[in-house]
């Protein structure tokens, strides 16, 4: 039998191509390591931080009246692509009148807070609890979660309800795969999203191992908010964004400084993944009306469909539902709405 030189080359070429393809796939799927704050290759630590029991650090910021003088202590949980440096437009007069102390913090992987490779919906509640304990703000406190920062509030309602004096979920995140949602409702709400967002959330939910690749590839559009697609904002949102552009807030450059995967990507994978519980599993933490839970939803919100949060509040009647007719997703960044959120939370 005679073998041609070409035939003899086929096997090694095939092997080389296979190895090369596998190597490319591995690099495409594997996110880069985070740049930990305070490490030799990482950004400097520029914020006060507490050390958690697992060795991670959480960065925080205090505002309002001194904690020793406060009547109400509120932990504020930021949303997607935000940080502890967000500004709530409540007047000094209101804060002084109500004697409110605010505790803001960078969630895992954001800003100056260490990433959490074991991050889950459940871990978010225990981060809040340990932060409160380390800073000795008291046995009970209030929580406000904004947008994607609301899923940690759901976690607090599930895992540490005994620590809560009250809770507000402002334009709260929605997981379209919650079992409690009727198929027609979740499908209709999901279909209202931009196609690129639908695909991004599907990848995060069904194939999270591909999420870094999906968010990094250039062939198909991924998440609209990161692409700067302004179609997701209502008219009132656009007016607020215009004001922000004229006076940018501090700390924006630090939000993703430890890596986009550990901050933004992991946030989406956790929130849109499979939860350890369903919202309908939650039990009223205030059966004797010693506190209250609120959902605030903008009717004009194009990021979070109001139909889902309206449905949840109907099925959980102990949640006080507030639907603001002319507001969009940035509802709380209008002074009148922000002050209404605070008053309802602490005075209800």
Q: How would you characterize this protein structure?
A:
- The chain is an alpha/beta fold and 348 residues long.
- It has helices at residues 5-29, 92-98, 121-134, 151-159, 183-191, 195-206, 211-216, 224-227, 235-246, 260-271, 306-315, 335-347, and strands at residues 49-51, 57-64, 72-77, 100-105, 141-146, 164-170, 293-298, 319-324.
- Helix 2 (92-98) links the parallel strand 3 (72-77) and strand 4.
- Helix 3 crosses helix 4.
- The chain is globular.
- Residues 14-26 have low confidence and may be disordered.
- This is AB hydrolase-1 domain-containing protein.
- It holds the Pfam family Abhydrolase_6.
- Residues 74-342 form the AB hydrolase-1 domain.
Secondary structure: elements and pairs:
Elements: H1 5-29, E1 49-51, E2 57-64, E3 72-77, H2 92-98, E4 100-105, H3 121-134, E5 141-146, H4 151-159, E6 164-170, H5 183-191, H6 195-206, H7 211-216, H8 224-227, H9 235-246, H10 260-271, E7 293-298, H11 306-315, E8 319-324, H12 335-347
Parallel strand pairs: 3-4, 3-5, 5-6, 6-7, 7-8
Antiparallel strand pairs: 1-2, 2-4
Keywords:
348 residues; alpha/beta; eight-stranded mixed β-sheet; 12 helices; 8 strands; 38% helix; globular
In short:
This protein has 348 residues and is α/β, with parallel strands linked by helices. The protein has helices spanning 5-29, 92-98, 121-134, 151-159, 183-191, 195-206, 211-216, 224-227, 235-246, 260-271, 306-315, 335-347, and strands at residues 49-51, 57-64, 72-77, 100-105, 141-146, 164-170, 293-298, 319-324. It has an eight-stranded mixed beta sheet with strand order 1-2-4-3-5-6-7-8, sandwiched between helices.
């Amino acid at each position: 039998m005679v073998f041609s030189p070409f035939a003899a080359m086929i096997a090694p070429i095939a092997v080389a191509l296979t190895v090369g393809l596998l190597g490319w796939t591995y690099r495409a799927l594997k996110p880069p390591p985070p740049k930990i704050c305070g490490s030799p290759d990482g950004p400097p630590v520029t914020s006060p931080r507490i050390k958690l029991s697992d060795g991670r650090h959480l960065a925080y910021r205090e505002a309002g009246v001194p904690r020793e003088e406060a009547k109400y202590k509120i932990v504020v949980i930021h949303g997607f692509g935000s940080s502890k440096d967000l500004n709530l437009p409540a007047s000094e007069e209101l804060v002084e009148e109500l004697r409110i102390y605010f505790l803001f913090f960078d969630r895992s992987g954001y800003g100056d807070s260490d990433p959490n490779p074991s991050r889950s919906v459940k871990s978010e509640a225990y981060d809040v609890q340990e932060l409160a304990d380390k800073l000795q703000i008291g046995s009970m406190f209030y929580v406000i979660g904004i947008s994607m920062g609301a899923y940690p509030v759901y976690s607090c309602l599930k895992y540490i309800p005994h620590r809560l004096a009250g809770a507000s979920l402002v334009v709260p995140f929605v997981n379209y795969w919650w079992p409690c949602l009727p198929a027609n409702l979740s499908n209709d709400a999901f279909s209202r999203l931009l196609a690129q967002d639908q695909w991004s959330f599907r990848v995060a939910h069904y194939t999270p191992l591909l999420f870094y690749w999906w968010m990094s590839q250039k062939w198909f559009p991924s998440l609209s908010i990161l692409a700067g697609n302004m179609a997701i904002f209502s008219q009132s949102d656009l007016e607020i964004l215009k004001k922000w552009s004229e006076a940018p807030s501090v700390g924006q450059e630090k939000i993703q400084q430890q890596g986009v995967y550990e901050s933004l990507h992991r946030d989406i994978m956790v929130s849109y993944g499979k939860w350890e519980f369903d919202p309908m599993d939650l039990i009223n933490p205030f059966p004797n009306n010693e506190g209250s839970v609120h959902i605030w939803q903008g009717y004009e919100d194009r990021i979070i469909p109001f139909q889902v949060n309206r449905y949840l509040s109907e099925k959980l009647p102990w949640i006080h539902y507030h639907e603001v007719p002319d507001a969009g997703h940035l509802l709380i960044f209008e002074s009148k709405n922000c002050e209404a959120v605070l008053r309802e939370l602490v005075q209800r």
